[in-house]
């Protein structure tokens, strides 16, 4: 090619390099998926902080129990769900496959499993609320079971999408690894 300001190679206007400027699709996908997973992790951290605040207020008795109810049993193991998110974030800088796999496995164990248990634990109280209109636990005047079911639904979606995007990211990284081995 030609140097800056110097003579150009015969038969070229200097624009024939553009075909070499494309980024491989698996690298583009990796960047896009990392961005989506980070958004989901930040959403998860927000949910986690809300549950942590509810637990602290309930246990430290900062507000009366008629305003903020004591936490349900499923909320305690759900506090461990921050660990898979941290592992996921740690896997991004160097495309660490083992951290991402550990993050996916522990998301199922520490995030999804407590949510399933929580839905089952709160079901009798939800039934009682909707059949008889009786609620015994409240969070700022609203039925605690209704609010916590909303949290469970949102958190389940966040973790489901997080697992889906993590699987796609893992596939993208394997594609990249296989192409490096071919060279």
From TrEMBL:
Write down the superkingdom of origin.
Eukaryota
Q: Where would you find this protein in the cell?
A: Endoplasmic reticulum membrane
Q: Which UniProt keywords apply?
A: Endoplasmic reticulum, Membrane, Transmembrane, Transmembrane helix
Signal peptide start and end residues: none
Q: Which GO terms describe its biological process?
A: endoplasmic reticulum organization; granulocyte colony-stimulating factor signaling pathway; vesicle-mediated transport
User: Among its keywords, does the record have Transmembrane helix?
Assistant: yes
Q: What is its main location?
A: endoplasmic reticulum
What would be one Gene Ontology cellular-component term for the protein?
A: endoplasmic reticulum membrane
What is the membrane topology noted in the UniProt record heading this document? Multi-pass membrane protein
Q: Which residues cross the membrane?
A: 40-62, 99-118, 138-158
Q: Tell me which Pfam families the record gives.
A: Jagunal (PF07086)
Recorded hits in InterPro entries, A to Z, give:
Jagunal
UniProt lists the family membership as follows: Belongs to the jagunal family.
Q: Which PANTHER family does this chain map to?
A: PROTEIN JAGUNAL HOMOLOG 1 (PTHR20955)
This chain's protein is named Protein jagunal homolog 1
What organism does the record attribute this protein to?
A: Podilymbus podiceps
């Amino acid at each position: 090619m030609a140097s800056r300001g110097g003579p150009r190679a015969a038969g070229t206007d200097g624009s024939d390099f553009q075909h070499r400027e494309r980024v491989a699709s698996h690298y583009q996908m990796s960047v896009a998926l990392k961005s989506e997973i980070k958004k989901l992790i930040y959403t998860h951290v927000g949910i986690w902080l809300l549950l942590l605040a509810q637990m602290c207020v309930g246990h430290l008795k900062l507000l009366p129990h008629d305003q903020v109810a004591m936490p349900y049993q499923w909320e305690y193991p759900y506090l461990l769900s921050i660990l898979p998110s941290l592992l996921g974030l740690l896997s991004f800088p160097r495309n660490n496959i083992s951290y991402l796999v550990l993050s996916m496995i522990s998301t199922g164990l520490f995030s999804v499993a407590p949510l399933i248990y929580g839905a089952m634990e709160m079901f009798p109280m939800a039934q009682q609320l909707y059949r008889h209109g009786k609620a015994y636990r409240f969070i700022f005047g609203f039925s605690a079971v209704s609010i916590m079911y909303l949290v469970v639904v949102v958190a389940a979606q966040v973790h489901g999408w997080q697992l889906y995007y993590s699987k796609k990211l893992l596939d993208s990284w394997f594609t990249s690894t296989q192409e490096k081995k071919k060279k």
